[in-house]
């Protein structure tokens, strides 16, 4: 799967920011990353592929991978929130009742 290198760079930078500053501002940046990816035509598969690649890089040589894995899950959920909201809106339009 070929993923836009800019998406990977932005994802890695935003993820690293979140690992350093596990706060709402860093999660807001994750949400914005997901929204911009959705707006530019990115897919869920692109995001998940990039997330996995960035997480593997972050896990290399780290002690306590459980904490990093939990942080990575929180970050991924925030990135995917835009996709989830768009999907729910689509489903509601299809079946308003």
Explain what you see.
By secondary structure, the chain is mainly alpha-helical. It has one domain (15-94). 80% of the residues lie in helices and 0% in strands. The protein contains four helices and no strands. It has helices spanning 5-20, 24-39, 44-59, 65-94. The protein is globular and about 50 Å long. The mean pLDDT is 88.
Please name the defining characteristics of this protein.
single chain; 97 residues; mainly alpha; 0% strand; globular
Low-confidence stretches: none
Total helices: the number is 4
Strand content: under 5%
| Major beta sheet summary | none
Measured as a percent range, the helix fraction is over 70%
Query: For the CA atoms, what is the radius of gyration?
Result: 14 Å
Short précis:
The chain has 97 residues and is mostly helical.
Protein topology:
Elements: H1 5-20, H2 24-39, H3 44-59, H4 65-94
């Amino acid at each position: 799967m070929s993923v836009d290198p800019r998406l990977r760079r932005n994802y890695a930078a935003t993820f690293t920011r979140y690992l350093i500053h596990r706060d709402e501002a860093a999660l807001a940046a994750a949400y914005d990353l997901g929204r911009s990816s959705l707006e530019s035509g990115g897919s869920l598969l692109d995001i998940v592929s990039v997330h996995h690649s960035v997480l593997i890089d972050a896990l290399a040589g780290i002690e306590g991978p459980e904490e990093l894995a939990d942080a990575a899950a929180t970050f991924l959920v925030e990135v995917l929130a835009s996709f989830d909201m768009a999907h729910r809106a689509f489903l509601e339009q299809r079946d308003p009742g």
